[in-house]
Amino acid sequence: MSKHTVTLPQDFILGAASSAWQTEGWSGKKDGQDSYMDLWYKNDRHVWHDGYGPAGATDLFNRYEEDVALMKQAGLTHYRTSINWSRFFTDYENGVIDEEYATYYDRFIDAIRAAGVEPMICLEHYELPAYLFETYGGWSSKKVVELFVLYAEKVFARYHHKVTRWFTFNEPIVVQTRVYLDALRWPYEQNTHTWMQWNHHKNLATAKVVQLFRAKGYQGSVGAILNPEVTYPRSSAAHDVQAAERYDLFYNRVFLDPMVKGEYPAELIRLLDHHGVKWEYTADELAIIRENTVDELGINLYYPHRVKAPSRAWNPETPFHPAWYYEPFELPGRRMNKSRGWEIYPRIIYDMAMRIKDEYRNIPWFIAESGMGIENEGQFRNSDGVIEDDYRIAFIGEHLFEALRAREAGANCLGYMLWAFTDNVSPMNAFKNRYGLVEIDLQHQRARRLKKSATWYRGVSESRSLTL
Ligand code: BG6
């Protein structure tokens, strides 16, 4: 195949992402500062990989200066991470800041900026304080919405002059789906009412934080990082198309619509009522959601979601689950990332871009995560000790190309962020699958080494051109 080159607009973001709990480690963490993810790791020892997990993570807390230097070497224009809510306070109810942790954050943000990289910060990347989970049932409670707004207020006050792009949540649907729909994570309880209550309270919390940010008159924007899955029906038959539409309603539009259009889809409310799913909301809360939609979106896009009509009837005596309406479908001959079990289909980026353009007021957005988790990457190390991750280079190139193609076609796509900047702790398998541009060598004191993809990424960033 002949090679061709495409140009990146000068202002196109070429960044990488990570989160606090997946990188910083527990150094300096005080008793009572666990997050929900720490709790899950403490309760489910099987998710640790060879004894490695969030306790050591990548030790970013002690090594952020080294990592910031590597950001420059990898050519990042932007870096996205989170602040760890569970560690930012010593008292969540009264908003008493943990000065040791906040000072680390002050320095980390200053270092990123000094390196000429723009920081983008998420307020919660699954770091709900365990205390609030145990005391109030987490996002089941309106009290937690209030405490999140208090947290946002304290963070904005401290950093508004250094950070201008804020996001409330990363993938706000994930924790309650794993915990309360699929009962896959501790405490393994299936409860669709609780699932919907968490969804609503996270939508409400986002709107309230947007309202607060605007009321204070801060410069910048507030958005959210969502993970709508581009959902393709098996066929154009009505029952398969309906399966895809229902999937879209329960998992994608439940956040996209309120956050961007200011209201829940009527069909979603109808179906929840029909199945007796009880969630509490007031007219005032719906008005807050309506009046405070987000400024921009980050979208995490990894793989396509393919569905077909369900092949069996569900037992109406069991709690309602959206899966009553669909079943997964595996496309014959699909390309796979076998390590992670995810299909590779770069076209999802273009298709999502067109949907946002046509259905979501062409709101500014960027790819907030895209990437490839690979097991045993050490096998690709060359004689100089560098991991030659050509598969990652090909993956990024193909996905980035789709983003640029969408932009040409009028999409308001601001850029591309790789997951992840360094290898880090995954929710389900700690360090098993490696995602980074930068290797973390766990056997050698977590030594950092640029992979081949990092050098390539820098080349794309500096030359503003991509050759495929
Ligand atoms: C995203 C999350 O869903 O996927 C990240 O925002 C996560 O936190 C990433 O690490 C990759 O998934 P996984 O499960 O392979 O780590």
TrEMBL record:
UniProt entry keywords in alphabetical sequence: Hydrolase
Database matches in InterPro entries: GH, Glyco_hydro_1
GO molecular function terms noted in the UniProt entry: hydrolase activity
Pfam family, one: Glyco_hydro_1
Domain of life where this protein originates: Bacteria
Tagged with keyword Protein biosynthesis: no
PANTHER family: 6-PHOSPHO-BETA-GLUCOSIDASE GMUD, GLYCOSYL HYDROLASE
Similarity comment text for this entry: Belongs to the glycosyl hydrolase 1 family.
Protein name as catalogued: Glycoside hydrolase family 1 protein
Species assigned in the record: Siccibacter colletis
